[in-house]
Amino acid sequence: MTKISQKMQGHHMQGQKHILVVDNDASRRHQIETVLAFVGEHFYVFSEAEIDQHLADIANVLTIILCGDISSKLQEVIKSHPTYPFIYHDIIDKKQLNGYVNVIGELTTPLNYAQLTELVHHSHQYHNNLPSKRGNNGPSSLFRSLVGSSEPMQQVRFLIEQVASTAANVLILGESGTGKEVVARNIHNLSDRSKGPFVPVNCGAIPAELLESELFGHEKGAFTGAISTRKGRFEMAEGGTLFLDEIGDMPQPMQVKLLRVLQERTFERVGGAKSIKANVRIVAATHQHLEDMIKTNDFREDLYYRLNVFPIETPALRERKEDIPLLLKELISRFSAEQGQSVRFTDQAIESLKEHPWAGNVRELSNLIERMIIMFGEQVVNVGQLPLKYRHLDVDDYQPEYPEEIQEREAINELFSGFDYDDEDDDSEESNAEGAMVADGNTVDVLPNDGLNLKEYLADLEVSLIKQALDKNDWVVARSAELLDMRRTTLVEKMRKYNLQKAS
Prior knowledge:
Helix content: 40-55%
Number of strands: 16
CATH architecture of the largest domain: 3-Layer(aba) Sandwich
Number of helices: 21
CATH topology of the largest domain: Rossmann fold
Structural class: alpha/beta
Mean pLDDT: 84
Strand order of the largest sheet: 2-1-3-4-5
Radius of gyration: 38 Å
Strand content: 5-15%
Low-confidence stretches: 1-14, 134-140, 426-443
Largest sheet: 5 strands, parallel
Distance between the termini: 109 Å
Number of domains: 4
Shape: flat
């Protein structure tokens, strides 16, 4: 017979998770029922024949306890409900449960409180860490800016989901560039204040003498320059969220006034006497170690504990390097949408970026991508194209070689680049003599009257210059190539082409 109390029904209506006990033995069923009632759990107890009905009718199942014989029907229930954790009790043949990873533990005989509470905890953890809740089945649009599948980022998203629907003050801790404001915006967007305003204030960027007016507003004539009444950020955030960034930079006098607002939920404008209610949620953030600042009397301890109701730590990028490929994809997509240009990175370039310490975190990565788009828009970037400090892999960059026709054309362009073909007055023989070239040690006019074979002439010139470089460097190919500004392999090929060898 099914046991359902009125109290349990009320909790069920409120979304309370329930334990389901499936047992055909009435005596054993009664024992479990007694223990569960004693520890204050919410449960349903029924026989195997009733299981289909209850699985269809009951929402918010925490765990299912299976007792006695495990029939093929119960095995099918385990298999068809992978989102439920199962516990077994007093099972004759435990081998029947082999291979079912959602069977998370055994409730032994005699029943005891410690073991039961531990298994209940494991059941909650099973639900909390379901892949669908970790965002592996596609990121929520709200969490799109919190890119990453690493464990630290999964934890951040989980904490946001837990605290968003509450009224608790949140303190976000982390290095500069780790996305603390992004976390704050997601908390706001997931809360029941999402339709209200999100008002950010950088406490470190506003001069101390202006911060009070910025937060609380001022009345007309409150100070020199106050030509009209002005609302402060607290009023602007009415019904929404006030994000106090870099709270560690807030001067001591303002810390006292902020503490009063948090305690009394009222404030006055500068120069005003009327109390104004503050219906706002406070989310603060800092990159500083507030506990150390408390020891040096730079931050009030009472304010710290008011703000630090629910702390969330944003991980540094070096602590989640496995997220870099996903971050690259996301950031490139944003720049492409904004600027109409994109860039791609080779696998080697990505591996090199993973080795970087990223002192500036995600903000530094974003700046790098923007730089690469400017320099190599719509191209593929390898390690060699990265700025020097991001090259952490020793990779031979590709150096193209070109057909001789292209090289000869370039050589001709360079040879004649200094000639001014529009200078009609420069037709003297002296001018022609100044443009003489040397081949095999002989002076030759730029263009003899009877003409010349340009290809042969350039080849002779090339051979002469190669010989000079080799002789100058005692036929050390590497140094000679450097003198001629060409690759060593290119010089070797030309030496082979022209049959150039050191005289014995």
